Amino acid sequence: MISAVGPGTSLAIAGGSLGLSGPLEGPLGYVFWSVGYVNAIMAVFNFLPGLPLDGGRMLEAIVWRITRSRERATRVAARAGVVVALLVIGLGVYEAAQTRSLGGALWPILIGMFLLQGARGSEQQITLRRRLQGATVAQEKSNEANGSTRDQQGRILVAEHLTRRVTRYEP
Q1: How far is CA 20 from the centre of its chain?
Q2: How far is CA 67 from CA 63, 70, 126, 144, 162, in A?
Q3: For 112-166, how does the pLDDT look when each residue is reduced to its tens digit (9 = 90+)?
Q4: Furthest-apart CA pair in the chain: how many Å?
Q5: Whole-angstrom Cα distance, residue 34 to residue 36?
């Protein structure tokens, strides 16, 4: 499983760095210990079973293999991702309540919000895939009702969105 490579690499770096930090003294030993510690945390965190984390991709693959339904697998992994995200946010809120400070709580809250957005985005992809299933470019190519093609409409939309002003793009 390719999803296990990232956390596995972090785990290997953690093991090697922590192993080297023991015999080394002074600042160099501390650097190796810090690298090992951070990579150990990253490995454990990325193994959490919820999208968009690597553990969520692994969960998605396992559910897909069992159910033979990609849609169901993505939905299960995305919902697990929502649970993981809410737990991380809850950890941040708990930290803030215990310390009466946002200092140490801000990161878990921000990371949890990022995870929540990623999990919800994964679930939205299911709906998009279902809508696009069976659609062809020929069906969507032209919309001559207003005298422009979908391509021109897309260019106008992008131009307006990127420049934040109303301008028309005419080829």
Answers
A1: 32
A2: 6, 8, 16, 43, 42
A3: 999 999 999 999 988 888 888 877 766 655 545 555 566 666 666 666 555 554 4
A4: 75
A5: 5
